Amino acid sequence: MDVSVIIVNYKTSGLINDCIKSIFDKTEGVDYEIIVVDNNTENLSEVIAEADNPRVKLLQLPENVGFGRANNAGAKLAAGRNLFFLNPDTRLLNNAIKILSDYLDNHPYCGACGGNLYDKDMRPTHSFHHKMPGLYWEVDDLLNTFPEKFIHGKNRYFNYSGMPMPVGYIQGADLMMTKALFERLKGFSDEFFMYYEETDLCRRIKKEGYYVASIPQAEIMHYESASFDDADAMERKWRMVYASRRIYLRRAHSKLHNFFANRICRIFLFSRTILLKESDKQQMYEMRLRLFKDSIAG
After folding, report:
1. Element (H, E) at 234
2. pLDDT tens for residues 154-168?
């Protein structure tokens, strides 16, 4: 088996069915399986259209364990030498699985890779980041991303170069790595419920001496934040984001580094509540500032 595609379900079976269809439609020249892991939300045998397909494995978890731990559970069933962690709100636009798998097979020092992501209107969207979260990130946000624009130009979050590019981390929407390395690193950290788990995994991959790569030839559509479509859901999202951010910074950096990173993040959020005149954006940043304060106080 070349590749095990692992998809985590949280009330997203409609999206997953479209995702699975795109895998069958676009993938050729590679032996693969699809593992769907449910976080105790739906009966997969009833809602997955390809439930009886021999390429598809279904795993029902007894509770919602979060994104990373659900992927870890799916990886235990995987027969592929490469693991492809794919979000349910994605569709393959080309033979991305083979493209990424071939790159991993031919570049033994590549620890993980992912493709270029497009939104539902086929506009390039956030596919990777050149730097890992920390002080640099916060300064870049405070300066309206000018440093990243100056250093990387239009390639700061999407690979326009047409060539593989080393990056800081790949978005968790489409991350592929070898099963051997995944097992050596003991998979995604159990500390994260959702968000930053793929960033932390890429950080540990690089600590092992590997690089992480953006492969622009692999193209995937990503309906980002499809499940956060109202104010309450958006607040839950940012609460999880800041909780995971705190865990990541603790694992990756010193207390002094994080003290300054938090100070700058707070200044950035506060400045947006003052400078933005559109009421909806002001309210969003006010909400984010409140949740950020809660996260660093907890």
Report:
1. helix 231-252
2. 999 999 999 999 999
